[in-house]
């Protein structure tokens, strides 16, 4: 087929062949693969109504639309597929348990606590953790590491249960969205003095969508006005029918304050797990699992809490977690105890990584440090590309005019005390909708204090550096002050969102509105040499102001717009303004078509506040 001409640039046409592209590829990437000129693709896409630069990341749909137009089938490879392929090149897979299921060992259930805000998720997690006195005595002060394990007795057997200690369904969905399915059972917390609320339903939907069994903790039963029966009643509408009503869901009345019902709750979790799940794992294979939390520790460097899902993690293992890698220097439990090894469903802090992985990243143990490093490097490159793509909000361009105008962008650098909050903040910020003219982009994110290199990066235009629970370190503050970099500190997400929203609004081009200043009636027209016609007028309303904008109205119709009051006189003297009821001479510059009885209307354009 002949090469079609698009906007004067010729383009090689495909014959329906498939071309594979990573998510977030640019037109230059596509051009390279199909042997075309990037400019020709830019033009072709422009004809389809979208304006992008050759190196900008393009979303899936647009790539496919463009592909169809030029005769190629574009297959966008998802990050998961890409990662699978990456691991395959090293003869590795993630998620597939090896060996014969018969030989696997039973493992504890992993529980996530979800529910409406203020219904007591945090208190309940604290109460369950603190009730585990034995372990605390053994290890000293219990730390918050993002997950913990408690042991409870059921039918005379000591049974461990693992809790993810980052309450809220955001973390649950965030992990699931990354393909890291960690939760076996959800405890849905509902306050007995309140009832089913929007986030209760949301949490329940998430759990049901993930096909995770639910145990309902009816909390705050100590409170006056608590009505546990009402909660059972309400939840039947959502398909959660209590066992005592003939259903399959276990409801347990608890109080996170008086600690009543906590043992029953743990028992309910185990009974539910035993009844509906067969939780087993191979403890012999190379260990794999998921990162629950990552942070930068002042003394120990990057520290990640990981949940082992299969295999046995040991000190000295070569590990790759997301785009971080290293050798496991030490393994610590939630009580600060050093562990030699961690079995499946064991949350454990890993010290020894070279950087901080993100919550929801998967980890693998590999044979050699070299392999861990290569995988991490490849992932790093891929994450950078993907982030550039997804973080640039797509800007819809209505017409050519708007397309050619450069859209403005507010760039952010986000630093925080742990990877979970950095991600939560980034996600929340990306949801801010202001206007199509403005886009928001996170150019860098990370865990730890704000460093000099962050500030260096911010030295471009319109960069705001956000520190969430972290401060600028040493020289960074000095540099930021000297260069006038906008650094803001937050401890509350909502406050950050409000301020960034305000900043975005501040970048919008102002909207102007016309405000009438005054009108004057023309009584006489004077011809003044070198100046032209001057209107001898009487000010009818408001004030006539020199240099203000004006229009001329004759018999109710606008004769001329876009004029201005170029001269204004009271008798022989120049005046800056003349008020209602006074006479004056008005000159409208080179505009001379002025007649007796015309009305001169004056106005100014004032900036209108945006709401
Ligand atoms: P979250 O937002 O779901 O994590 O809720 P929190 O754990 O922060 O609890 C919200 C409020 O309810 C706090 O003031 C708690 O002290 C209180 N609270 C939590 N559980 C109970 C309970 O069992 N009984 C009573 N009386 N108050 C509780």
Automatic annotation (TrEMBL):
It is found in: Cytoplasm. GTP binds at residues 115-122, 165-169, 219-222. It holds the Pfam family GTP_EFTU. One of its GO terms (cellular component) is cytosol. Keywords: Cytoplasm, GTP-binding, Initiation factor, Nucleotide-binding, Protein biosynthesis. Its main location: cytoplasm. Residues 1-20 are annotated as: Disordered. Residues 106-278 form the Tr-type G domain. One of its GO terms (molecular function) is translation initiation factor activity. Belongs to the TRAFAC class translation factor GTPase superfamily. Classic translation factor GTPase family. IF-2 subfamily. One of the essential components for the initiation of protein synthesis. Protects formylmethionyl-tRNA from spontaneous hydrolysis and promotes its binding to the 30S ribosomal subunits. Also involved in the hydrolysis of GTP during the formation of the 70S ribosomal complex. This is Translation initiation factor IF-2. It comes from Blastococcus xanthinilyticus. The gene is infB.
């Amino acid at each position: 087929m002949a090469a079609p001409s698009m906007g004067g640039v010729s383009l090689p046409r495909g014959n329906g062949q498939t071309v594979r592209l990573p998510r977030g590829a640019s037109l230059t990437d596509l051009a390279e693969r199909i042997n075309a000129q990037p400019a020709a693709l830019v033009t072709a896409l422009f004809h389809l109504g979208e304006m992008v630069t050759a190196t900008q990341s393009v979303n899936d749909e647009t790539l496919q639309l463009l592909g169809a137009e030029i005769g190629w089938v574009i297959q966008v490879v998802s990050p998961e597929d890409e990662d699978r392929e990456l691991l395959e090149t090293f003869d590795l897979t993630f998620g597939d348990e090896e060996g014969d299921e018969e030989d696997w060992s039973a493992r504890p259930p992993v529980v996530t606590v979800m529910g409406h805000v203020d219904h007591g998720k945090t208190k309940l997690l604290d109460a369950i953790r603190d009730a585990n006195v034995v372990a605390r005595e053994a290890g000293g002060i219990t730390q918050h590491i993002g997950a913990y394990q408690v042991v409870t007795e059921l039918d005379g057997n000591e049974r461990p249960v693992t809790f993810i200690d980052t309450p809220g369904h955001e973390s649950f969905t965030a992990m699931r969205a990354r393909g890291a399915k960690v939760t076996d059972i959800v405890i849905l917390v509902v306050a007995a003095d309140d009832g089913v609320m929007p986030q209760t339903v949301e949490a329940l939907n998430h759990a049901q969508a993930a096909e995770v069994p639910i145990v309902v903790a009816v909390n705050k039963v100590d409170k006056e006005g608590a009505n546990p029966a009402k909660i059972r009643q309400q939840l039947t509408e959502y398909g959660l029918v209590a066992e005592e009503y003939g259903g399959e869901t276990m409801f347990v009345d608890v109080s996170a304050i008086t600690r009543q019902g906590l043992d029953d709750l743990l028992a309910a979790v185990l009974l539910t797990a035993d009844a509906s799940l067969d939780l087993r794992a191979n403890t012999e294979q190379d260990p794999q699992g998921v990162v629950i939390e990552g942070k930068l520790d002042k003394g120990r460097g990057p520290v990640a809490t990981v949940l082992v899902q299969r295999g046995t993690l040991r000190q000295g293992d070569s590990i790759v977690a997301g785009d971080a890698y290293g050798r496991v220097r030490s393994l610590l439990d939630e009580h600060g105890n050093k562990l030699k090894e961690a079995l499946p469903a064991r949350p454990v802090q890993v010290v020894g990584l070279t950087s901080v992985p993100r919550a929801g990243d998967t980890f693998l143990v590999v044979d050699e440090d070299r392999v861990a490093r290569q995988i991490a490097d490849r992932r790093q490159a891929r994450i950078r590309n993907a982030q550039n793509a997804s973080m640039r909000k797509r800007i819809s361009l209505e017409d050519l005019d708007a397309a050619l105008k450069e859209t403005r962008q507010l760039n952010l650098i986000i630093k925080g005390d742990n990877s979970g909050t950095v991600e939560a903040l980034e996600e929340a910020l990306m949801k801010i909708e202001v206007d199509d003219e403005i886009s928001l982009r996170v150019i860098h994110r990370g865990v730890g204090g704000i460093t000099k290199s962050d500030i260096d990066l911010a030295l471009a235009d319109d960069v705001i550096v956000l520190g969430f629970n972290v401060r600028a370190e040493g020289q960074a503050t000095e540099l930021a002050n000297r260069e006038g970099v906008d650094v803001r500190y937050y401890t509350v997400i909502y406050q950050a969102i409000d301020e960034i929203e305000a900043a975005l609004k501040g970048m919008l081009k102002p909207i102007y509105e016309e405000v009438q200043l005054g009108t004057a009636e023309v009584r006489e027209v004077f011809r003044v040499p070198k100046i032209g016609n001057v209107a001898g007028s009487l000010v009818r309303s408001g004030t006539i102001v020199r240099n203000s904008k004006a229009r001329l109205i004759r018999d109710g119709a606008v004769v001329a717009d876009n004029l201005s009051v170029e001269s204004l006189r009271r008798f022989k003297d120049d005046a800056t303004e003349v008020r209602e009821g006074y006479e004056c001479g008005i000159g409208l510059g080179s505009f001379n078509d002025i007649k007796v009885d015309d009305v001169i209307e004056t106005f100014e354009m004032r900036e209108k506040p945006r709401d």
